[in-house]
Recover the amino acids of this structure.
C-alpha cells in the first residue's frame, strides 16, 4: 500500500498528487452534502406543516446539553486543524497529542448524546408503539429528572400545542423521527470519523507523517470538519425552533 | 522530490476562528430567545451558514485551495440550492386533484391574498 509518500507514475509532482487526493475527498463530501441536504429538506417541509408539534418536541430537548455538545464539537474541529498543522510543520509529538484530544472530545460528544437519548427513552419519546408525548404530564413521578418548573412549563406548552393541533402525538412523533434520524446519522458519521482517527493515531505514533507526506491527516481532517458543519446546522434546526416562548 | 507549495494556516488564525465560532454559537442561542416571529429561523440559518463558511474557508483550507477544488465546493453548494429551491417551489404551489392546496401552499396563498 502507498504509505510513505513516493510519487506515483501518473503524477508529475507530489503537490499535484496531493491536490488530486484532496479533490477526490471534496467530491465525496459534496455527495454527503446532498445526502444530508435531502434529509434537511424533508425536515423543513414537515416542520413547516406541523409547526406546533415540532416546536413542542424541540422544547423538550435540553439546550444546555445541546449547546455544550456544540462547543465540544467546535473544539474538536480546532484540535483536528491543529493536528493538520502539526503534520505540515513536522511536529511529530504534537500530531499524536492533537489527534488524541480530537478523539477525546469526540467521545465526550458521544457521552452527552447517550445521556440525551437515555432521557428520551425513559420519557417514552422514542417513535414507535409506546411513543407518548403526554407521558410526563400523565406520569410526573416517572419524570422526576425534570424540575417542577420545567414540567409545569412543558404541560402548559402541551396544552397550547394540542389545542392548535388535534393530532399532536402523531406529529410530535414525526419530529422525534427526524431528531433521532438526523442526530443518529450524524453520530454514525462521527463513529466512522473516530475509527479513522484511531488509525491516524497509530500511524502518527509510528512517526509516519512528515511535512512531505501527511495526506491522510489532511483528508480525515476534511471529513471531521464536514461532520462538524452538519452539527452546526442540526443544532439550530433541532434545538432552537421555538425557545423564545419560555 | 519537488518542493512543497502548500499554504500552511497558522495556529493564530485557527485560534481566531475557533473564538469567533464560539461567539457565534452564543449568539445563535441568544437570538433564539428573542421573539422575531418568522425571522427567528432566518437569523438561525444565517448564523449557521456564517459558521459553516468559516469552517470551510479556514479549517478546511478552501481559501488556499486550488481553483479546481473551489469550483467543486461551489458546484456542491449550487446543487444543494437547486434541491432546496425546486422542492420548496413545488410544495409552495402544488394543488391536488380536487383543487385543494397543500398545507404549505395554503399558508402562502393566504399571505398573497392578504396583499390583494
Amino acid at each position: 500500500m502507498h504509505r510513505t509518500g513516493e510519487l506515483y507514475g501518473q503524477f508529475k509532482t507530489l503537490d499535484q498528487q496531493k491536490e488530486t487526493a484532496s479533490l477526490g475527498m471534496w467530491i465525496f463530501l459534496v455527495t454527503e452534502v446532498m445526502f444530508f441536504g435531502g434529509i434537511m429538506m424533508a425536515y423543513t417541509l414537515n416542520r413547516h406543516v406541523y409547526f406546533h408539534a415540532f416546536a413542542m418536541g424541540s422544547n423538550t430537548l435540553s439546550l444546555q446539553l445541546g449547546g455544550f455538545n456544540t462547543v465540544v464539537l467546535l473544539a474538536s474541529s480546532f484540535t483536528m486543524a491543529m493536528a493538520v498543522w502539526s503534520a505540515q510543520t513536522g511536529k511529530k509529538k504534537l500530531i499524536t497529542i492533537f489527534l488524541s484530544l480530537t478523539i477525546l472530545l469526540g467521545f465526550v460528544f458521544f457521552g452527552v448524546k447517550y445521556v440525551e437519548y437515555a432521557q428520551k427513552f425513559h420519557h417514552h419519546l422514542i417513535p414507535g408503539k409506546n411513543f407518548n408525548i403526554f407521558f410526563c404530564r400523565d406520569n410526573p413521578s416517572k419524570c422526576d429528572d425534570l424540575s417542577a418548573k420545567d414540567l409545569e412549563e412543558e404541560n402548559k406548552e402541551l396544552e397550547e400545542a394540542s389545542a392548535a393541533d388535534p393530532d399532536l402525538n402523531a406529529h410530535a412523533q414525526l419530529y422525534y423521527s427526524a431528531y433521532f434520524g438526523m442526530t443518529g446519522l450524524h453520530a454514525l458519521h462521527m463513529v466512522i470519523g473516530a475509527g479513522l482517527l484511531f488509525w491516524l493515531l497509530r500511524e502518527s505514533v509510528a512517526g509516519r507523517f512528515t511535512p512531505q507526506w501527511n495526506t491522510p491527516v489532511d483528508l480525515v481532517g476534511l471529513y471531521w470538519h464536514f461532520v462538524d458543519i452538519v452539527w452546526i446546522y442540526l443544532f439550530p434546526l433541532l434545538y432552537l425552533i421555538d425557545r423564545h416562548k419560555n | 522530490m519537488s518542493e512543497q507549495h502548500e499554504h500552511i494556516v497558522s495556529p493564530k488564525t485557527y485560534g481566531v476562528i475557533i473564538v469567533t465560532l464560539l461567539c457565534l454559537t452564543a449568539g445563535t442561542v441568544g437570538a433564539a430567545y428573542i421573539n422575531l416571529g418568522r425571522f427567528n429561523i432566518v437569523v438561525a440559518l444565517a448564523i449557521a451558514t456564517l459558521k459553516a463558511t468559516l469552517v470551510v474557508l479556514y479549517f478546511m483550507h478552501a481559501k488556499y485551495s486550488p481553483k479546481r477544488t473551489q469550483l467543486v465546493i461551489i458546484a456542491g453548494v449550487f446543487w444543494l440550492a437547486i434541491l432546496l429551491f425546486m422542492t420548496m417551489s413545488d410544495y409552495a404551489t402544488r394543488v391536488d386533484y380536487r383543487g385543494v392546496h397543500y398545507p404549505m401552499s395554503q399558508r402562502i396563498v393566504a399571505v398573497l391574498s392578504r396583499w390583494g
